[in-house]
Write a structure and sequence with these properties.
protocatechuate 4,5-dioxygenase activity; 10 strands; plasmid; alpha/beta; about 35% helix; single chain; 10 helices; Protocatechuate 4,5-dioxygenase, Chain B; Xdiol_dOase_suB
Length: about 290
């Protein structure tokens, strides 16, 4: 059967992609950030998956404000980098995994999570920047990627609890797939930042790191964080952190969706790497890698 071996969590700031594309990674402003991802790039080389299930939010490229699905899964064979107003990023096209994506959609929808099935869409910096941070600048991405877009742009947005439970359902779906695949699940977005209004530029280091502690060590408590806490403490765009809870809910120390109460779970995941940096275009950058044990 397929299995989830690890989860990766990272911010997806568009300026990071521009710094990579324009060769600015060694400039004094950017160097500390990219140095923090060097261990992650090596980890990725040493732990290459068969498929990445990548949770991100679309930034009005695949979906406009006319139509915003709460959860959308990409089931196509390939996805092109989006033109976000200044041309597409010079990165490889994303190769999908239609068989696994369709299986996950079938399983998750039968568990009463409503997904939008997307057979054609372009993918923006929310998806390509994490791939660049973890994989560098290859001629092709190291494996197929299943894009999973979450609405954290237009209220109402899904709760942390619903995202966490969705992650549990995704794990159940992956483990019922009949091919032997090593799957990683990535949660992206965040951490604290606000792009507009009187609090534009807000960064809350203390809250970010406390939330990251909680997500790693007590994910149930992190999932119970109310929306108002994200907005008040982490800024209007801090709500993107609910996407990290999808990846955390899919890990082996959390009961799979529908498991009976008291069902055995796996050991706590191993923290392979953790990093936090500010600023990156007036945004806090958080990052962690968790590995399932056994």
């Amino acid at each position: 059967m397929a299995r989830i071996s690890a989860s990766v969590f990272t911010s997806h700031v568009p300026a990071i992609g521009a710094a990579i594309d324009l060769g600015k990674t060694h400039e004094p402003y950017w160097q500390p950030l990219f140095k923090g991802f060097e261990p992650s790039k090596q980890w990725m080389k040493d732990n290459r998956p068969d498929v990445i299930f990548l949770v991100y939010n679309d930034h009005a490229t695949a979906f406009s404000l006319d139509l915003i699905p709460t959860f959308a899964i990409g089931t196509a064979a390939e996805f092109n980098p989006a033109d976000e107003g200044w041309g597409p990023r010079p990165v490889p096209k994303v190769i999908g995994h239609p068989e696994l994506a369709s299986h996950i959609a079938q399983s998750v929808i039968q568990d009463d999570f409503d997904l939008t099935i997307v057979n054609r869409m372009d993918v923006d910096h929310g998806l390509t920047v994490p791939l660049s941070l973890m994989c560098g600048q290859p001629d092709a991405w190291p494996c197929p990627v299943i894009p999973f877009a979450v609405n954290v742009v237009q209220y109402p947005v899904p709760s942390g609890r619903r995202c966490f439970n969705l992650g549990r359902a995704i794990r159940k779906a992956v483990e019922s797939f009949d091919q032997d695949l090593n799957v990683q699940i990535w949660g992206t977005g965040g951490m604290s930042h606000q792009l507009q209004g009187a609090r534009a530029g807000l960064i809350n280091r203390e809250w970010d790191n406390a939330w990251l502690d909680k997500m790693i060590n007590d994910p149930e408590a992190a999932a119970a964080t109310p929306h108002i806490d994200y907005v008040r403490e982490a800024g209007s765009e801090g709500i993107e952190l609910v996407m990290w809870l999808i990846a955390r809910g899919a890990m082996a120390d959390v009961p799979a969706f529908g498991a009976p109460e008291g069902a055995p779970v796996g050991p706590k995941p191993r923290l392979a790497h953790r990093f936090y940096h500010v600023p990156a275009s007036n945004t806090a950058v958080g990052h962690a890698i968790l590995e399932n044990q056994g």
